[in-house]
Write a structure and sequence with these properties.
Layout lengths: L2 H41 L11 H26 L2 H54 L10
């Protein structure tokens, strides 16, 4: 392996690790938004002006979560070869994508929140598993990034 290839591999592993961690954080943010925002708005009504309860906030989270998650899972699975991790992650992403479009109309507000929460938990858990598998893999240098 040449120095250039080794540096590129280390760079890719670092990006994959950062993407896993970012996806976990974004999924937790999505879950907190879903669960805590109604209580926070009741306690601090001035937050309504920020528009955080709007569906557009959910859509922006989905727009950010999907590519970051997909990148981390594809790169991780290319190293540890556990395709179940990729499929589970895509299931969570699918649930997260469905929630703002069909959740409220077909499942009601509670169903939409439940679908969103389930998708976010699946995504976060999948990225934790992906990160751990990548760290265990001897050809993956994910542990070096933190």
């Amino acid at each position: 392996m040449t120095v250039k290839t080794a540096n590129m591999s280390s760079y890719t592993n670092t990006l994959q690790s950062i993407a896993d961690k970012a996806s976990i954080g974004l999924s937790v943010l999505c879950a907190l938004h879903c669960l805590a925002l109604p209580l926070v708005v009741v306690l601090l009504p001035s937050l309504v002006a920020l528009g955080l309860e709007d569906e557009s906030f959910h859509l922006w989270l989905v727009i950010v979560v999907i590519p970051v998650s997909a990148y981390a899972l594809v790169m991780g699975c290319s190293k540890h070869r556990r395709m179940g991790v990729l499929y589970t992650g895509f299931l969570g992403m699918g649930m997260l994508c469905l929630a703002p479009f069909v959740g409220h109309e077909f499942l009601g507000e509670f169903g939409e929140k439940l679908l969103t929460l389930a998708g976010a938990v699946i995504i976060a858990a999948t990225h934790v598993r992906n990160f751990r598998l990548c760290r265990q893999n001897t050809s993956c240098n994910c542990a070096a990034s933190g």
